[in-house]
Amino acid sequence: MSKEKNPVLRLLTSVKLTLVLFLLLAAASVLGTLLPQGADIAELKARFGPALGSLLDLLRLNDLFHCTWFSCLLLLLCANLVACTLDRLPKTLRLLNKPQTAFDSQKLLKFALSGAIATALPFEQTLPAVEKAVGETFGPLSPLQAESGYCGFHETGRWSRLMVHVAHLSVLVILAGALAGSFLGFKGNMNLGEGDASDTVMLSSGESALKLPFSVRCNKFTVSFYNTGAPREFKSDLELIEGGKKVRSQSILVNHPLSYQGITFYQANYGTILKQASIELTAPSSDKKIDLVLPFQKPVTIPGAGNLLFIADYQDNFMGFGRAIELGYGKLGQQKDFSARWILVDRPDFHGNVVDHYKVRVSKTEKTNYTGMEVKKDPGVWLVWFGFILLTLAIGLTFYASHKKLWVCIEINEKKKKTIVTLAGRASRNPQFFEEKFQELRTMLELRLKDQPLQEKGVANTKNKGL
After folding, report:
1. Is pLDDT at 467 greater than 50 in this prediction?
2. Does the residue 414 lie in any domain?
3. Mean pLDDT computed over 344-353
4. I want to staple 431 with a disulfide (CB 3.0 to 4.6 A). Which of 34, 150, 235, 462 is the partner?
5. Domain housing 347
6. Which whole-number Å values give the CA distances from 309 to 193, 214, 281, 284, 339, in the listed order?
7. In this structure, are 144 and 72 located in the same domain?
8. Is there a domain that residue 48 lies in?
9. Which run of H or of E encompasses 331?
10. 81 and 122 co-located in one domain
């Protein structure tokens, strides 16, 4: 009596669980493809409404491929595939390693595809003729030790039984690559003006920034246009600086990225960006004026105050009021608690142009071209490619590789003074082709042994029943 499986193990080895997980992952992937990834809750509410937007943000459908529940589904599918493989692989290995034992004609005649030929030729002449015919039709025979007569078989494609397990392994490799990319990789953006350098990537999730182990400098940015005014090509001449030394220099174009230390920079877009702004701060209590030049997104200390001030953002037309800069301000060492305020450049007397207790007037703005780059690191991409190639091969071999086996038994019938040649065979794939080869072998043997068939059974039946 077989030992009953543990309920947890029975669930993990269930094919139904595999199908459910595949359907859930497929449905989630469709949602992740259709919904905007990286959108914040404000954008979701503006596009889908407050209720649905909040639900999408709660379920993390705006960052699906990095959220916890999607990763849990992937891990559960991995566990399911591992359990199924460990449960079924030993049985497959036992079948592959099971030695072939001797057999008799009565056993072979139970096969759906079988037949026997009687010949007056002696055993010593029949055996070489049979071996030659089988060799010409299928391949060489492997003899087995038999008490009397001759037993032999020819087998090909035995390894094809393992292909389903190779397919499982390839799916695990793909999932491992996807998880490695999700947990160890990142995707973000970097905008650089000509002559600027940065080591900070703004992540696509919009929640944080990432420091690179090196800096990227844009030495030059060029763009060419068609006669219609549409951009034809834009190129960035980049320089990578690590430890104060230049380690790499390369131009990137669309579809011609730069890769270094597993991090890839893609040319994504371009435009104009605020390089710096000259501002005048006026303290209301003393009317003392402070002139500052603020580089874009680089904090500057306010003289005599100790607070930091920096340009966080710039818009050419802020809510219809023209040019505006967003000033961030706060105390030194407390950057996380910074506040921000929009200042209207074209309306210097606007009452809202105030930061902290200073009245702000923007006297000059200086723009420059910038290159927009998509920055990605995906350490699992090679695992995904390897798993995909392995899966393609495994599926192809599973459906097209055939396990074919032919059995031959030669016995001497003392009563009829005949030598009886019994044949049987089966194929796991394309049985029609195998039957044609089987019939070709029978016809060849009948001609070479110069006798008529003694028995025919199941020749037209290709259900491949048998051992």
Report:
1. no
2. yes
3. 88
4. 462
5. 274-369
6. 20, 26, 11, 18, 10
7. no
8. yes
9. strand 324-331
10. no
- Same domain, yes or no, for 316 and 365? yes
Instruction: Check residue 336 and give its pLDDT.
Output: 52
Dihedral pair phi/psi, residue 428, rounded to 5°: -80, -20
Same domain, 227 and 346: no
CB 29 within 8 A of CB 174: no
Give Cα 207 to chain centroid, integer Å: 25
Which residues 6+ apart lie within 8 Å of 459 measured at CB? 113, 114, 115, 435, 439
What is the number of structural domains in the chain? 4
Q: Which of 160, 156, 16 is nearest to 92 (CA)?
A: 160
Q: What is the pLDDT of residues 49-97, one digit of tens each?
A: 888 888 888 888 887 877 888 888 888 888 888 888 888 888 888 888 8
| 311 pLDDT above the threshold of 80 | yes
Residues 288 and 363 occupy one common structural domain: yes
The residue whose two tokens read 């086996």 is: 405
Residue 459 in this model has a pLDDT that exceeds 80: no
pLDDT of residue 333: 58
What does the DSSP assignment read for 117-166?
Answer: EEESS-HHHHHHHHHHHHHHHT---EEE--SSSEEEEEEE-GGGGGHHHH
Q: Name 124's Cβ contacts closer than 8 Å, sequence gap at least 6.
A: none
How long, in residues, is the chain? 467
pTM over 0.90: no
